[in-house]
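Input record (one chain):
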Amino acid sequence: MSETDLQAKIDRLQAENDRLLHHLPIPKEGFLVVRQRLTSVQRIANRSIATEP
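The corresponding structure, as predicted from the sequence alone:
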């Protein structure tokens, strides 16, 4: 899987997460916390993709 494929997959999953999160009865603050976690997970994923040989 190329980096472009992985990034496309991450983008698709993130869009799906956003769509699903809007259906959950989470208060706005809770949604922002979840969003921050997703963003930090994505940063970690991007870092590991970047450091792969």
